[in-house]
Every structure is written in structure tokens, then in C-alpha cells.
Amino acid sequence: MQKPHRIGPLFTDLYELTMAAAYFQNNVQAKATFSLFVRPNENRNFYVAAGLETALDELSAFDFTDIACDYLKKTNLFSDNFIQFLSQFRFRGDVVAMPEGTVFFGDEPVMEITAPIIEAQLVETLLLNILGSNTLFATKGARCLHVSQGCPLVDFSLRRTQGQDAGLRVARSTYITGFAATSNVQAGKVFGIPVSGTMAHSYVSTFENEIDAFRAYADVFPDDVVFLIDTYETIAGAQKAARVGQEMNQQGHMLKGVRLDSGDLVALSKQVREILDAAGLANALIFASGGLDEFEIEKLLKKGARIDAFGVGTAVGTSADAPNLDIVYKLVRFNNRNIRKLSPGKQTLAGEKQVFRKLDAQGIMSVDTIGLRDESIADSQPLLAPVMRRGELVQDHPRLRDIQKNFKLNFNALGDRYKSIHESHRFPVCLSEKLKQVQEVQ
Amino acid sequence: MQKPHRIGPLFTDLYELTMAAAYFQNNVQAKATFSLFVRPNENRNFYVAAGLETALDELSAFDFTDIACDYLKKTNLFSDNFIQFLSQFRFRGDVVAMPEGTVFFGDEPVMEITAPIIEAQLVETLLLNILGSNTLFATKGARCLHVSQGCPLVDFSLRRTQGQDAGLRVARSTYITGFAATSNVQAGKVFGIPVSGTMAHSYVSTFENEIDAFRAYADVFPDDVVFLIDTYETIAGAQKAARVGQEMNQQGHMLKGVRLDSGDLVALSKQVREILDAAGLANALIFASGGLDEFEIEKLLKKGARIDAFGVGTAVGTSADAPNLDIVYKLVRFNNRNIRKLSPGKQTLAGEKQVFRKLDAQGIMSVDTIGLRDESIADSQPLLAPVMRRGELVQDHPRLRDIQKNFKLNFNALGDRYKSIHESHRFPVCLSEKLKQVQEVQ
Predict the structure, then answer these.
(1) CB atoms < 10 A from the CB of A215, how many?
(2) What is the domain partition of chain A in residue ranges?
């Protein structure tokens, strides 16, 4: 599998570099631990960890090239000594993190980094961006899957994502949560995700007659075609699709399905189902698309729409109802001293931490406890695992299908009320006694 | 200036390729014109065109590499003939577009592409994504600038943008509209945008005393330092900053300013201003940051905050109140025949078009008319200019500073009511008689 392009160390806020320079010139070299977590927000009951593979790949390859150093020199902000130091710089820290696909909650560290302060500081922007955006999209994907009643979902968002790697991250993160495919060909190539697509209205419009457009397509893709039937009038379009579907049957092929992209999808899907069934095309699926997200999918299915699969686009690919996470990277320990931040509304839990999860007798999550890294909590499993030691990967990246399994296990263990896409419920996350003591010592 | 990495032709929805294959196998080669526009939406009165340079660079370099072709072969969807065709493929179409920085409105084409149907189809996803996301961010930037009363704005969004190129696009697009700088070092390198930054709370926390943190930083950056003063208690922080500012004065340097990142910014900024002034540091600026966007900036300034410059982050870098545009790419002419799309709510204006802008006697925009490409409208200026002919750039890309000028000219000519960030006002966009006739012919 080819990796996407490397992001590199200039993908950073300038202050990471100026702070590093201040540490460097003042010879501050002590070890620091930073904790990366999402501050709780009413619009999400849970989050799905994603992006770790990309994050670790970037840490492994974190390298100021000559070109990067030349640019930094030209800013006239940095001493030659410091730029020389950067040119030799590699990330050699220790990292613990939740595996991708883990369901987690506000305030719980998803990752903690321990390294000399400069190393830990220089990777902040990169880690926040990668883990934040992937987690954002995986969480949105999980919400969609939750309401889809087993109907396959396909990511159609690429044209309106906020950039190229947003598109890749949406495709991969929603696939982790169980999406069936993506329209994003690059994601297919880079991650090995199944790609899928139908046809556009423009295609149908270029033919004199709608039925000619269908026949021409069926000729080229006889075993993999979904006709878009709403370019002119949906019911007439369905009848033509059915006719071509029957012709395909006679030639030993099978119409995969039709797509509805506008109008009253509940009523239309029922009528189209009848037309297809009456034509002996009971196996032909009805795909729906057009402004769909978890809220629309839930509505359509509750109203009895006869839709078999959904293409979700813009609203999912930009996580439109909550387009960012309050994800932060906070210093929690420095030079063997635990650190708290006290700014109003921005408190941070000091100390190197672990998150412990307890399941009830039915295997449903009952409580998470944030504790100290080295403690153990009865009947609870730790969620953070070592993923990097002294800058080296502890193990190979898991395969996407294993990440999918991890997500499924996690999501199945999440109580129903926390899966709600409408109501806000705060999962119980408490602090261990030892962690509380550390906070009071300050 | 080094360009960002090339995006490439696999950055596409699969159906662009399957439609292209259907055209190829059915020998459909006629010329098509597609129109790229934003459907009107109540949450934005105007848009700022951005992203053209990136879009044209991608069109110029649109090239299916061997690696790309190998992947497509492995999908088993495409014939060898078609893949052979792709391996030779270059974009050789004609493009007209609004220059970057142009203020435009819903339904107005920002770009029109004329090329053999396959060529025009294959670039759809790429163009929508690039022009859409850049325009989204430029528009958000313009709204922030509008309420900032001349205070410099700095883009601090990188850590929470929806990916790496989102970060680059936010930096460039907000710079076009007049932002002073970005924290994004990569954007500095790639686009030559000024970079800026202060320090983080973590930095201050690593020192035993806040004042030591300030002194250590001032030692390294004596002529370019902004102290973050809210790590512990803002007023005490301001007093320490003032003390170090006085020490810097004695050594012939000048404190650039202080930053507030939490708390009641109105009250705190007034108190901090007094502290700085009393210490003889009237030139030291007060920066504010922390969850700011156009709505917060307007509120702070209306309440009399003594803030000199704003760092805007997450909400701007994800255009949080409107995180996507309903941007579309529609077939409007094919094989010398004008094409309309009639799906409910998705109507399209047929024909190759031009947008004509009329200013009133005071130089304020009074009405835009969408007409046919080859007509002329009295007292009105056309907004779409040829930018590519047969795949070749018509002229060099404008410099960023010229794009900034174009935006400024445009924005100055926009009536005040349309600049409102609260009220929805629909700028008058009408259709020429000739364009109307074309619609009726169908």
C-alpha cells in the first residue's frame, strides 16, 4: 500500500519552534509528558479514536530537511546553532495511545507523549491535527452507522471536504467504523478501501434519451451498474431502468441497482421498489443520496423508506453539525514534577495517566476511571498501550480490518443511551484516588 | 516559492472515471461546457473567489502516472484500452474564471470549463474541492476582517483544521482577504505569507516562576516577543510582563505585546492596558485569542475591549458556522446543445455564460446580470476572464498582493447591508434576456 505524502515538521504553529528555540538557548532539556485529549462537549456523547497510524508514521519520519532549514533561516528568527540542532533532530520519545477504533470520552487522554521538552513540544500541532480530524470523522461515521439499520453506507464526500487529506481521512475514518466503501479513488489506492460510484446527472443529460444513457453504461459495466434515475422524472426513470435491467438479465447480467438523489425519498423509494419488483428485479438495490447524514438517514428509515444503501456526502465529510473537536495537548509533567493548568475553563489533570474501563456483567461499559499510569484498578482494563519507545514503533500497524473489529467490539459495549444522536448523555468518567491526590499536591 | 505537493488525478470520485469509461467505450467525444457555481444559502450574503491558482496548477499537471494506472487496472473495472487512453491523457480544455479575490454571489458561475466531455468530466471532483474549500475560508476571513475595525488578524487555526491542506488553504485564503499573518510555518514557506506566534501555557509552566519564563524568552527573541499572561492569574501576569518589558527597554529592546487567552477579555484588556501604560509601555500591543470568530470579535470591540490584534483559530479554520458550500459543477452545454437540469431544487442555467457587474455612481455594486458568454451588457463589467486555453495558462498567476488588492477593491464596492454577519440579504442577481431565451428553448 502506498502511503500518502509525508506531512513533515513545518506543519506546525510557529510558536512550537520559537518555544523550542527558547528552550534550546536556555539549555532546558528536562523530560516532559504531554497529554492529548478532547474536552467534553454536549454535541457528542462519545468519540472514536482514529489517526494513530498516520500520527506515528509522521513521528517516525519527523525530519527537518535542508529545504525546511533554509526556509527557517530566512525568517531571521532563529540562531544558526538552533537551526543546526533542528537539522539533526529526530523524535526519540515514548508514546502511549488508545488503539484506533477505541470508543472514548471527554477528558480521557487518547495519547500521552514523554520526551525531552523540545521533542514533545515540536510535535504538538501535527498530532492535534491528525488525531483530531480523523477522530472527528470516525465519530461522525459511527453516528451514521448507528442509525442505518444495517444498510451499507458509502462515503461520497470528497468533492466538498475541506481539502485533499480531509478527503482521505474521511474515507479511512468512516471505513474504520464500518462504512462499506468510498467514492474516493485515492483512498482506494492509498488505504485499500473498496471504491464505489454510480453516474452523474450530467452523464444522463449528454444522451438524447435517458434509456440510451442507461444502455450505454450497462454495455461497459454489465455487472456493476447503478442507474441514476432522477435526472428528468424519477418514476419514468425507474421504468426505463427496469426495462434495461430486464434486457441485462436476458444477456446473463444483473442490474445492481438504481440511485435516487432528489425529491421525496420515502414515497419515491416505495414506488420505485414496486416498479423494480414488478419487473422481476427484486435483487436490484435502491441507493439514496443527496444531503444525507445521521439525522436524515434516521428519519428516512423511520418513515419506512425502501432504501437499501446510502451515499453520504458533504455533511458527513465536514462533520457539519460539529465541524471541530476541542482537542488539546497539555503539559502534565515536567522535570519529575506534575503540572496543572488552572486558566478558567481550561483545567488539566496533572500526571502521567492511564484510562481504565470497567464493563458490567453483560459486557456493557459501566465506568471509566482516569488513574495514574502505573496503578491498576480492579476489574478494569487499561486503554492506553505503548505504541512508541524511544522513537521506534513498538509493533507493526494493525490492519484496517482489525481496527474495524476493535471499533465493533467497543461500540457493541457502549450503552444505548450514549449512542443517541439527539440526546446528550455524559458517560461516567471518574478519577482514581491516586490521581486525585496528585492534583491536590500542587 | 515551493508549491505544495501535487494532488493528482486519483483525487476523484470513482464515477468520474466510470463515466469517462462509458464515454470512451461508446466513442462519445463531443465538447461539453460545465459551470461551477455555489447555490445560494441564507448563511452567506457573499462569497470570495479563491483557489484558482491551485486549481489551474492541477489542471496543468493532470497526469495519470504509471502507479495510478496500475491501481486502476487492479480494480478490474476498466478495459486495457481505457487505461491506455488515461496514461496519455492531458487536460487540453478552455477555462474562464473569476480572478481570486472577486466577491461573488449564489448562482453566479465562478468558473466555466469547455473541453471534450471526458476531459471536462474527469476534473470535476478536483475543481469542486479546491475552489470550494478555498472560497469557504476566504469568505469566512472576509467576514472576520469586516468586523475587526482595522485590528490585525492572525490565523491560528492549524492544529484544528480538517487536515494539512485545509491548514494551507485557510492560511492563504484568509491572507487574501487581508489577514496579517498565520501561525502555519508551512504556509509561510509555500506561499511566502508572514508567520507569527507567541508562546503556550505549557512553556510558562515549565519555569519555576512566570517571570523567569518571560525573561528567558526575551533573551532569545528580544525584538519579537509577545508574553502569554494568563497561565496563572492574568493581572499578576501583566505586571510581570510589564516589569520584563521595562527591563527590555533598558537594554534597548521593545516588548511587542502580551496575549490574553481566557477570561473576560473586555475587562481584562482594559486593566492590562492600564498596567502597560503605567509602566511606560504604551506601544506594547494586546493580543487576544481563544475561541474567536467574527461574532466574538464584533462583540468584544463593541463592548470596548482594548484589544489591538486577534488570533483566530478553530472556528475560522473550519468555517464552523457554515462548514461547507453547496458548490456544484453542472453540464450546461453539450455537442452544441444547451443543457438544463430540472431535478427539484437543483435547476441549472443552460448555456455558456458570463457574469456582468454594474456599479452605481458611488462605485457601489448595484446589480449583477448573468448573461451569455458572448453578449455585452451596458455599463457593466464582465467578471469571468479566460485563464486557460487548450490546457495552457493564459498568463502567469497573479501575486498574492495583487489578489489582496483585487479583494479590497471588490469588498469596498460591496454595499454595507451585504457585509452583515447577522442578517441575510440577497444581492440582486438577474438574468439577461438572451440567457432567459436560451432557458425557454428547451
Answers:
(1) 17
(2) 14-137+322-441, 197-317
